Amino acid sequence: MADATTTALLPEVRQTARELRRMATGALARMYRPAEAMFAFRCRRTPHGPVLEGTSRRYTCTALVALAHEAPEVRRQVLGGHSVDELCERMVKASGAAEDLGEVAMALWAARALHHAHASIALNRLQAMVASPRPWPTVELAWGLSALAAEDDATDDPALAERLARRLLDAYRPDSGLFAHGSAGGRADVLRAHIGDFADFVYPVCALATWVRRGGDDDALAAARHSAERMCELQGEQGQWWWHFDVRNGSVIERFPVYAVHQDAMAPMALFALADACGDRHDEAIARGVRWLVDPPETSEPLIDAAEGIIWRKVARREPVKLARGLQAAASRLHPRLRAPGLDVLLPPGVIDYESRPYHMAWILYAWTPQRIAQFGGDEAPEGVE
């Protein structure tokens, strides 16, 4: 039950979500590279101002998933004179020969969301890849299920959706409420085999909850509900969605970095999907997560950069690259309750990663539709639930 302080946050979060949508739309427009007809891999701060680096088909597909549900004026603002259908055509054709399951899954999701005439290219490639015995990352399997469950489309494949759901449920650990980082049969690093990350909460919950609405079974709903409950139980006292977890017992292994996209987009999209599937509401946890982003206690500098019109990527520790995660992985591997001591003193959090990626902006638009913002924190049943 929400306390008075959390309840008072709900109107504030609605206003923040409107501002986040505005910033995300503008930032996506700046991250689009019309000459390449793709979105950049990232926008990075430099002494001379933000600069774009690289391109990404995955991020382009994610942007298309979000733009599929936006008004024509928003699409024009983001893509200028380019058409979402033409951009989707490029992504779908590229997926036909891709070796990256995540790229194929996202291309199919975009094509189905846009009801693209050639969505079957991505579907055929996904079918072939999932039919192989090769293990795949849990997140990428979840994207495939979301692609098949999110839309009614001529490329429906109930058998493939069932297979993907079963593989996700094989990765689910009922005792901890977490999903393993990879599907069964993978050769995970010995030190990391017991570790899942926050994305391994979000995307399976989102996919299974969405699949439940399309006819998924009780096992899928039970896993999604339990995992979402555990996710919220593990949330930091000040709203942080922590990063690494022990799939054996559901404990936090390493808290940092805290990613902005988890706070304002990924956690909401998963919890909103669950609310739509069965009515379970976690608005208070969502509100706390967004409130952390507005005023992160680990740093005096903002992640929401109004001057640049952008949201920076994360708050991390002051450390050599991934040192804390490596130490905590090794300690917890020796014993589930063992942690490397004193890291908050030796490697204190507070460093901002001054980059931003298009998928973050896209998931903001996807999670916080105008209708969702208007309903947030209210008493009415979520969409699709009586």
Would you give an account of this structure?
The protein is mainly α and 386 residues long. The chain has a single domain, classed as Glycosyltransferase (Alpha/alpha barrel), CATH 1.50.10. The protein is 53% helix and 11% strand. It has a three-stranded antiparallel beta sheet with strand order 4-3-15. A three-stranded antiparallel beta sheet has the order 7-8-9. The longest helix has 28 residues, at 4-31. The chain is globular and about 55 Å long. The mean pLDDT is 92.
Measured as a percent range, the helix fraction is: 40-55%
Percent strand equals 5-15%
Uncertain regions: pLDDT < 50 for 5+ in a row?
none
Summed up, the helix count is 16
The value of Rg in angstroms is 20 Å
CATH architecture: Alpha/alpha barrel
Structural class: mainly alpha
Q: For the report, how would you describe the main beta sheet?
A: 3 strands, antiparallel
State the end-to-end CA separation: 21 Å
Give the CATH level 1 class. Mainly Alpha
Mean pLDDT rating = 92
Could you please say which CATH topology applies here?
Glycosyltransferase
Number of domains: 1
Strand order of the largest sheet: 4-3-15
Write down the overall geometry: globular
